[in-house]
Amino acid sequence: MTSSARNSMTAVLGGVGYVATHVSRPGVIHQVGMMQRIVLGEYNGESSKRATFLHSALLKAGINAELSPNIRAEIWKKYVFIVGLSAVTTAMRSTLGPIRTNAQTRAYFFDVMREAVAVGRAQGVDLPQDYADDRMRFADTLPEDMTSSMHHDLDRGQRLEVNWLSGGVVQLGRKVGVATPANRAICDILALQAEGRKVA
């Protein structure tokens, strides 16, 4: 890791937010459901004054907040599921219910997440080897009509996050020698929509 990268990681507090939203119109974020959870922590695992201050402030505001000694792993845990959910709901133009009940699409959903787990582990992230199985069990608890913000963006002709989600898995996988064909296919399928519809 370069000195500039180390400096960036000490300057920035790591965090993960769990809240279901989409942009209902320009400047308006629409929250779906009541989920409000934030996990935060220092990248070096230490308990700092700023982390404990923010954690306390969030709790006082009524938000379910947690301090983590391994925020990098927490970020990857969210990344694995968001990559999978965004990939399949957007590429398949479907909500979660039909995807998880069809054997073929369910297997593909699992493969997308399994690749992300493999890449994270190859990067040294503390993820269980069977974490994709855990996320599939989690997916089975979610509403049938659940979708992803990227799926909403596709419907609205907006720019997609595919290059940072599945595309990120592909790029990082290339660096550590992990094959990512399922995520590469998502990038190829959505390539023509990735930049959104051009407005004349």
Describe the structure.
The structure is a single chain. The N and C termini lie far apart (44 Å). The chain has helices at residues 3-11, 49-60, 71-91, 96-101, 103-122, 131-139, 149-155, 166-176, 181-189; strands spanning 14-18, 21-25, 28-31, 37-41, 64-67. The protein has two domains: 1-69, 3-Layer(aba) Sandwich (Rossmann fold), CATH 3.40.50; 72-200, N-(1-d-carboxylethyl)-l-norvaline Dehydrogenase, domain 2. Helix 3 packs antiparallel against helix 5 (103-122), helix 5 (103-122) crosses helix 6 (131-139) and helix 8 crosses helix 9. The radius of gyration is 18 Å and the shape is globular. The longest helix has 21 residues, at 71-91. Strand 4, helix 2 and strand 5 (64-67) form a beta-alpha-beta unit. It has 200 residues and is mostly helical. The protein has nine helices and five strands. The mean pLDDT is 91. A three-stranded mixed sheet has the order 1-4-5, with helices on both faces. Strands 2-3 form a two-stranded antiparallel sheet.
